[in-house]
Amino acid sequence: MTASTAPGSTVLQIGPLMPALEAVLREQHEVLGAQALTAATPLADMGDAACITAVVTSAPVGVPAVWLAQLPSLKVVSSFGVGLDQLPLDAARAQGLPVGYTPDVLNDCVADLAMGLLIDGARRIAAADRFVRRGDWLQGRYPLTTRVSGKRLGIVGLGRIGQAVARRAAGFDMDIAYNNRRPVDGVAWRHEPSLPALAQWADFLVLTVAGGAGTRHLINAEVLRALGPKGLLVNVARGSVVDQAALIACLHSGELGGAALDVFDDEPHVPAALLAMENVVLAPHMASGTHDTRQAMADLVLANLHAGLAGEPLPARAV
Ligand code: 8YV
């Protein structure tokens, strides 16, 4: 327990968390909570809402904005993850309520998985694994795949994770350009203000842009067609960033070469059309999912929680 821990606090846990994090929360606080709370859940069902001083949630689950006003003793929201799209930032700001999240500690692992998906999408490692396991190698050689090194990489959203992807891609001698709301200072990579133009130029388009209303369906049919029949889309951002129906249609028609996806519209449900495609690599929203990074995220969730309860500045504050 840190010096700033407020013992005896009542924490509302929303949705499942890492078991080790749940254990620490239970050790240090009274935890009310549920795995399947929704905005429609009456807070009265949680016990005494007036006692709740903190909410602990995760990026994909968030917290309904309406709850903030119903928790009169709330001092802090601490979220496990870097994504802010499910968090009621405006309502929290209006109430002067600090919201903690876990940036930076996951950059490397998310970027590592983006590169892994990119290489798999181009070199078809998972599909080749299935080929060997099926015994198909006994009938003939595996089809040729696509070179990775030296290709053109377009990055959509050059934040901390996008920059970590770019640094890795530089090691593969890739030509790198990016699309961002505005050019990023202090980087050598080329800013391309037009998303279709970036897609048209790129061999691989990696999405590392934040989710939320502002980026919903940013990657539409026009962008996917521009990426083209030899192009590969890699998404480690949010399912909402891509028009999933357009993606499936473009993959079906051959207007897009392939996709490597860690995130989807309605997780954990993946459309049957994607499951059936050999030119699609699928991962279960696992980009930050290593022991090392998840522990670092859990530590930051606790540090934010305890700082908020003690009325101190949060180590990583979104609002
Ligand atoms: C999840 C994520 O937090 O950080 C994010 O925004 O989407 C992930 O790291 C993680 O999967 C836990 O649910």
Q: Cα-atom Rg, whole angstroms?
A: 21 Å
Q: Unreliable stretches, pLDDT < 50, 5 or more residues?
A: 1-6
Count of domain modules: 2
Provide a count of the helices. 11
Strand order of the largest sheet: 8-7-6-9-10-11-12
Global outline = elongated
Helix content: 25-40%
Average of pLDDT? 95
Structure class: alpha/beta
Our estimate of the beta-strand percent is: 15-25%
CATH-defined fold name of the largest domain: Rossmann fold
Report the span from N to C terminus: 25 Å
> How is the main sheet built?
7 strands, parallel
Description:
By secondary structure, the chain is of the alpha/beta class. It folds into two domains: 2-103 and 292-309, Rossmann fold (3-Layer(aba) Sandwich), CATH 3.40.50.720; 107-282, Rossmann fold (3-Layer(aba) Sandwich). The chain has helices at residues 19-28, 65-69, 89-95, 107-123, 125-133, 160-170, 195-201, 221-227, 244-253, 272-275, 291-309; strands spanning 10-14, 30-34, 52-58, 76-80, 99-100, 152-156, 175-179, 190-191, 204-207, 232-235, 258-261, 280-282. The strands form two sheets. The chain has a seven-stranded parallel β-sheet, sandwiched between helices. A five-stranded parallel β-sheet has the order 2-1-3-4-5, with helices on one face. Helix 4 packs across helix 6 (160-170) and helix 7 (195-201) runs parallel beside helix 8 (221-227). The chain is elongated and about 65 Å long. The site of 2-keto-D-gluconic acid (8YV) has 10 residues, from loops.
